Amino acid sequence: MRANRRARVALALAAVMLLTVAGGRLWLRAGASITHTEGSPSFVAITFDDGLNGDTTRAAADTLGRYGAPATFFVVARTVVEQPELARRLRRQGHLIANHSYDHPRAKKSDLRYTQAARAQATFYDAFGECPAFFRPPWGVQTPFVNAAVKRARMRTVLWDVEVADWDETDPARLAANVLAKVRPGSIILLHDGEDGHLGADRSTTVAALPAILEGLNARGLTPVRLDQLLGTPGYTSDCR
After folding, report:
1. Do residues 42 and 222 make contact, with C-beta atoms less than 8 angstroms apart?
2. Residue among 109, 152, 108, 140 at smallest CA distance from 33
3. Which three-class secondary structure state does DSSP give residue 152?
C-alpha cells in the first residue's frame, strides 16, 4: 500500500511539473512584450512613464507640440482621477495615453490576483469612454500573473529598447546625446515625466533635453510618432469592461 501511495504521489508531482513547464511556455507566448519594431525606416516612438505630473507633463507636451511630435504617455491611472483636465489636454493635443497600472506598485511573483491592469482600465474607461490598448508594467516587471491580466484586459505589453536613466541625469545635453547614440529606426524611447505617479516630481532635466532630442532625431531623418502608428494597431479599445 505504501509503495502504491508513493507511486501515486510521484506521478502527481510529475504531472504538476509537466503542467508547470507547459504553462511557462504558454505564459511566455501570452506575455511576449514589444521593445521595438523592425522595418520602420523612419519612425520612432517617444514614451513617457509615471505621470501625470502637473506642470512637468504640461511642459513636455507643449515642447512636443512646438515640434509637431506626438508621444505616448504611460499614465498611472490614479493621476487621471486627480488631474482629469491634464489627461483630457494630452488627448486633445494628439498624444496617446497608455496604461501604467493604477498606482504603480512593483509586481510580486506571489501576487496571484494582479488587479492593477484591470483597475486602471476601469479608471480610463470612466474618464474617456475607452481604454488604452498598450500596457507597461511599473519597472518593466512582468510575471505570469501580470501577463495574464494584461491579456484579459485585451492589451499588449510594450517596453522599450532605448533607456538612458533620465530620472538620474542632471545634464540635459548629455541626456539628449545618450538617447541619440542609442536610437535607431523602429526604436521605442523610454523617458519619464513623473515618478511613481507623485505630483511634483522633478523631471526638469528630461523636459530640458527634449528640444535637442527632437532636433537630433530630425537630423537623422527619424520621425517621432505615437505607438499606435509605430505598431500599426489601434491605440484604444472600447472592449475593455
Report:
1. yes
2. 140
3. helix
Distance CA 134, CA 117 (A): 10
The catalytic position among 49, 166, 193, 228 is 49
> What gap in Å lies between CA 157 and CA 140, rounded to an integer?
9
The helix (run of H) or strand (run of E) holding residue 206 is helix 204-219
Which architecture, in CATH terms, is 34-237? Alpha-Beta Barrel (3.20)
Q: Which of 95, 166, 192, 193 is catalytic?
A: 192
Contact criterion met (CB below 8 Å) for 207 and 60: yes
The residue among 210, 95, 98 whose CA lies nearest residue 158 is 98
Q: What is the spatial distance between Cα 120 and Cα 135, in angstroms, rounded to a whole number?
A: 10
- State the pLDDT confidence band at 241, using cuts at 50, 70 and 90: low
Q: How is the chain split into domains, by residue range?
A: 1-30, 34-237
Strands 43-51 and 72-75: what pairing?
Answer: parallel
Residue 218, all three cell numbers: 530630425
pLDDT (tens digit per residue) in 87-143: 999 999 999 999 999 999 889 888 888 999 999 999 999 999 999 999 999 999 999
CA gap 210, 21 in Å, rounded? 45
Region at 220 (left for phi over 0; alpha for psi -120 to 50; beta for the rest)? alpha
Give the DSSP letter string of 29-66. HHT--B-B-SS-SSEEEEEEEEE--HHHHHHHHHHHHH
Residue 192 a catalytic site member: yes
135, 167 Cβ separation under 8 angstroms: no
What does pTM read for this prediction?
0.86
- Contacts with 213 (C-beta within 8 Å, 6 or more apart), sequence order: 46, 175, 176, 179, 180, 189
